[in-house]
Amino acid sequence: MAIAKKYLKSKPVCKVTFTVPAEEAKSVAVVGDFNNWSPKASTLKKLKNGTFKGTFDLPKENSFEFKYLVDGNYINETEADRYQWNDYAGSENAVLEL
Description:
By secondary structure, the protein is mainly β. It is 0% helix and 55% strand. Strands 3, 6, 7, 8 and 9 form a five-stranded antiparallel beta sheet that branches. It has a four-stranded antiparallel beta sheet with strand order 1-2-5-4, with no helix packed on it.
């Protein structure tokens, strides 16, 4: 798994690319604070090599809790900026610092 951040000089946003290697998966989405935890708003596209990938514009100078939703199972990003406990979920969420 990987996260790539590209800050734009012309806008107060960061283009964040999420990459998830999941050859056997049928669907992968990234859900978090930035999209009200909605899988429909952030489905990743499956590439020919079996990796799922998607790029989203997120506001700079913010932090967001998120997880991947792989075939209905929540998975944390191994390369997250940090992790934060979430009482509602009863587990740690990955955190993206922009």
